Amino acid sequence: MSIEFLILHGPNLNLLGEREPEVYGPLTLDDINDRLSQHAATRQISLRIQQSNHEGVLIDTLHLARNWASGVIINPGAYTHTSIALRDAIASIDLPVVEVHLSNIHAREEFRHRSMLAGVCLGQISGFGWRSYVLGMDALLGHLGRLAE
Ligand code: DQA
User: Fold this and answer.
1) Cβ distance 100 to 132 under 8 Å?
2) Which of 1, 18, 99, 130 is deepest in the core (most CB within 10 A)?
C-alpha cells in the first residue's frame, strides 16, 4: 500500500526565515519543505504540504485528509495553545496525527507550555527545529509498522 502524509503548517510559519530567526532558525518554509520531501523520498512515501494562517482552513484541510492521508504531521503554531476547534477536528478524524514544533515550547513563555491538541495526538515533538517534522514523519511510519524494528 502506498503511503501519503499531510504536512500541515499553521499561522505565521509562511514567514519563517525572516520571523524571529533567533527562535525559529534561518530556514524558510520552502527550505524546510524541500528537506521534508527529500526525507520522504528516502522513505518511499509521498507528502502533500499545506500552510494556512486561518483556523477554519486548517480544520477543512484536516477533514479532507481523512479521504486520502495515512497520517498527519501538524505544526499548529499559536493555535496549539488556543484552539479547541482544532482539537475537536483532530479528534473527529480517524487518522494518526503528530504535533510538532520548531522551538521547545516547554522552555518558552508559560502560555506556550499548554497544548490544546497534544491530548488527541499520537504524540508531540518539540524543540528540534526543522528536524521535528522529520522525527514526526518517522514516528508516524513507526506507528504504521513501516519502519524496521
Ligand atoms: C511554534 C511554537 C508556537 O508557540 C508558536 O506560536 C509558533 C511556532 C513552533 O514551531 O515552535 O507559531 O509552533
Assistant:
1) yes
2) 99
